[in-house]
Amino acid sequence: MFNVTVLKMRDIVKYLVGFMIIIGIIVYATRFFAYKAENKEDKIKSSWLVKNKIEEKKDKSEKDKSENVKMQSISMWNLTSCLDKTIPAMASTNEEYNKIEKENQEINNKINNKNYLEEFLKTEISSIKGIEEAEKENADKTSVASNSDSSKEDSNDSNSNEDNKQESEKITLASQDSVKTEVVTPNPISENANVQYEKVKIKNQTTYNLTEDILNPNISIDNKNVLIFHTHSCESYTSSEKYSYSQTGNYRTTDLNYTVTRVGTELENYLTKYNINVVHDKSYHDYPSYTGSYTRSLQTVENILKTTQSDIIIDLHRDAIGSRPDYAPTVKIGDDYAAQIMFVIGTNEGGLWHPNWQQNLKFAVKIQEKAEEMYPGLFKPIMLTKSRYNQHTGKFANIIEVGATGNTLEQCLTSMKYLSAVMNEILK
């Protein structure tokens, strides 16, 4: 007998449907994965295209930037060339600027090849030898890194002390023997003194009645430390063969080797020879701005007094009486020609607190009284004013004006020899 399997129509349909479903799943899966691969490829192509566009834009931007810089450089060169031809002074200025830039580049190249600290110190020391420390500032006046500032200050102090030492060795103290003195001022200006105490003349510009009690120099000077500073550091004198310089203002220069600051150094050196302790501040107070000079110098003095107590505080100036080139108050002492000196003493009549003004005046009288004994004519009459001039900072604070615009620096340096001799007699 044969085994016959009877397939019902329902079973056949069931198998066909199952088979079709399997085929459908396979087809769908194939298409799905093919789509994913294609989509991934499109994304890669799209990303590549975007990246290329960004790179193209970047290249274009860099190119445009380079072209702009090039055009600016060409424009600036054309402008500079035009100015050089039109204004001769610009040519020398630009030449000097290019020279400085070249020197700076050479310094940078050296720094890259050698020890940085070593080269830095060499550069600073070299600069300080040619430039007064006021360019420091000026340091107050600008801010560099603290380590850099410290290094520069140390180098500056070292060089300054060395210079002072060398100058001090050249100094010859004034002879204590009586010498002939004579005022030889060309084109003199009337003194207009209206008060006289013993041999001391005073030009009183206040309403105070200067009594014996006010003028009598019965003072005791216990603290003999001397502080010298300059509210108007840039005040200069008539150029001479020995001290020739170029003015950067009306009888003014930022080169402190030719200003009243240099006179202060001379006084410092002489007083040191007499074993008198001196602090000499050489900061710029009238540069770059003249306005506010007294405010800035007051800050300087107050800062110094925090660490060094001084009763004798001297603000050393040059007389600016009309900036007349023909006025040169001069006294001949022996064979020396010295610029005359003048005390300016402030009071509280201007309305500012100033409890020390009578003490300040007594000190000036005491100094000038001794000077009239030793070197008659060295001083002009004391000027007593209504203004305070920061003289509230010390018991014996004052302004000393050395010479005028018509005097030479040499004459003013000579004056310091005799002023220091007088001060030494007072402070013994």
Describe the structure.
Helices cover 50% and strands 11% of the residues. The chain contains nine helices and eleven strands. The protein starts with 8 loop residues before the first helix and ends with a helix. The protein is of the alpha/beta class. It has helices at 9-86, 88-113, 116-130, 146-170, 212-215, 260-273, 293-305, 357-374, 409-427, and strands at residues 181-183, 195-197, 200-204, 226-229, 278-280, 312-317, 330-333, 336-339, 341-345, 382-384, 396-402. The longest helix has 78 residues, at 9-86. It has two domains: 1-113; 171-427, Aminopeptidase (3-Layer(aba) Sandwich), CATH 3.40.630.40. The strands form two sheets. An eight-stranded mixed sheet has the order 2-3-10-9-11-6-4-5. The chain has a three-stranded antiparallel sheet with strand order 1-7-8.
